[in-house]
Amino acid sequence: MTTVLICDDDPIVREALGAYLEHEQDLEVVAMVETAEEALAQIETTRPEVVLMDLVLPGMDGIEATRLARGMQPAPAVLVLTTFGTEDHVRAALASGATGFLLKATSAPTLVAAVHAAAARAGTVITPELASRIAVDPAARSDREARATGAAREALDLTGRETEVLTLLCAAESNAGIADALSLSESTVKTHVSSLMTKLGCSSRLEIALRAFERGLAAPPQPTIPPPPE
């Protein structure tokens, strides 16, 4: 059973998120609060494995709350939530120690998958819409256009296997999923991920994905468009 704490100042959002997660038999919402201060107090009391943290809160904001939460022992994984998102927001969330960054418009299945990935400390947790938005950011675009994808890979000295691992990592695959797809052991995948962190100058899987999107090394995942009702 994975325990989750929800922090959002909108009661409708809190209830909706709680309902999505409580529907899953292996997820338990241990607290729902509206301020960062309440969240930090509840984290000490309930010790959730995953925290859904709103970016904009009354008083202390979600970025600072994330930083403090990640400094606790044991530290929960934190997924930052917002109704909008820019590259600056993602960078700030990463710097604070966030495991991922999700738009509040994220579908229930995507939210549940993100919580599971965060709890397992595996996979890249970022909504496809936000990844696409970052990939077409003007500042990032100018950087990508300065080098072709192949040239960028060559400059970074990525091996063929590292490129395969990078592509799957950017598609939100966990180490186990990458290992299965490439017929490798998980320990070998971890070695390749560590090498990618070094070559790309990153400290997390999420940062690897963002750097790859910016440099054109991997295509950002595309939003899933639900079929029209019959």
TrEMBL record:
CDD domains, alphabetized: LuxR_C_like, REC_NarL-like
Start and end residues of each Response regulatory domain: 3-119
GO BP: phosphorelay signal transduction system; regulation of DNA-templated transcription
GO-annotated molecular function: DNA binding
Domain HTH luxR-type: 151-216
4-aspartylphosphate modifications at: 54
Entries under Pfam families matching the protein: GerE (PF00196), Response_reg (PF00072)
Keyword entries, A-Z: DNA-binding, Phosphoprotein
Designated name of the protein: Response regulator transcription factor
